[in-house]
Amino acid sequence: MKSLAIVILNWNGKKWLEQFLPSVIAHSANAEVFVIDNASEDDSVSFLASDFPEVKVIQNAKNHGFAGGYNEGLKQINADIYCLLNSDVEVTPGWLEPVLDVFEHHPEVAAVQPKILDYNRRTHFEFAGAGGGMIDNLGYPWCRGRIFDRLEQDLGQYDDVAEVFWASGCSLFIQSADFWKENGFDERFFAHQEEIDLCWRLKNSGRKIFYTGQSVVYHAGGGTLNKQNPQKTYLNFRNNLTMLLKNLPFPKLLWLIFFRLCLDGVAGIYFGITQGFGHLWAVVRSHFGFYGMIPGTLKRRIHQPIKKYHQQKWLIFKHYLSR
User: Fold this and answer.
1) Helix, strand, coil percentages, rounded to 5, for the chain
2) DSSP readout, 78-120?
């Protein structure tokens, strides 16, 4: 039987650990539980030592973000499978067995995601992963059960076991050998879409990403950076463009990047009107951030990326124009 480490990345998240760590411990008897602390300034570490001595704590010297924080902390964890779990996730009885079953029966699978429902509206899917991640022909991530901000009610429509394009970093089970073969997350991303980039690289290398609806978790969301923060807008736009430049087949790359830059301009104006100037400026900054990352991104490009990477075309137009 493969060994499993459940690894929670924490930054000033004592309240989340206090609320959700008990469910993780109660329902994860056959796994070791770790918390990687990203140089928190609250009393998270002392709280863990006093209230959860069975949890192993790894302390990073500084806040490396989501990508770098996991890369740094996971170097100290020896396990066949990592479960990267957000601190604001409630797990359920029996959540581990269906995931481990997928790994056992599908050796070609590198990563697996459970069903992710909304902790605050438990009948509906949650934004960060829902029923498994996909991507459209313009490079926009979406999920089964979530199209942009529109969330479906869970009626059992995604109780299947299926191959998907990406697994959410909210609750990401990944074989450690695959994680390190791809050198982990791209630390330049800091946070947001680094798991999509990693899954894309895994698929480019011939591995598969799966989802199982037989495992269920509930995600509160916004534990570190909520959607009203312009920095979240900046990271999402910058990282999405960088991910496309890294992983798309070259013939499609030039026209798509140009088209996406134009669409981002329209989105920036829309955000400026609906959410304030800070979000418009975040989109502008994201483009300059993307340009600054181009030399490093080109060095990281794979020589033979997969050509068929999407199962949906023109999603943004279908959603906003035709609904």
Assistant:
1) 40, 20, 35
2) --SEEEEE-TTEEE-TT-HHHHHHHHHH-TTEEEEEEEEEESS
- Which H or E element spans position 209? strand 208-219
Whether 159 is covered by a domain: the verdict is: yes
Q: In 3-state terms, what secondary structure has residue 208?
A: strand
Q: What is the structure's pLDDT at 303? A: 73
pLDDT digits (tens, 9 = 90+) for 200-241: 999 999 999 999 999 999 999 865 666 689 999 999 999 999
Residue 125 located in a structural domain = yes
Question: From CA 21, how far away is CA 89, in angstroms rounded?
Answer: 8
Type of residue found at 246: K
Q: How many CB atoms lie within 10 A of CB 79?
A: 18
86 and 9 inside one domain: yes
Q: How confident is the model at residue 86 (pLDDT cuts 50, 70, 90)?
A: very high
58 belongs to a structural domain: yes
Q: How far apart are CA 197 and CA 315, in angstroms?
A: 19
The maximal CA–CA distance of the chain, rounded, in angstroms, is 57
**What is the residue whose two structure tokens read 């990203």?**
38
Residue 224 belongs to a domain:
no
DSSP count for the chain of H helices, then E strands: 10, 13
Judgement on whether residues 163 and 240 belong to the same structural domain of the protein: no
Query: For residues 126 and 219, what is the distance between their CA atoms, to the nearest angstrom?
Result: 7
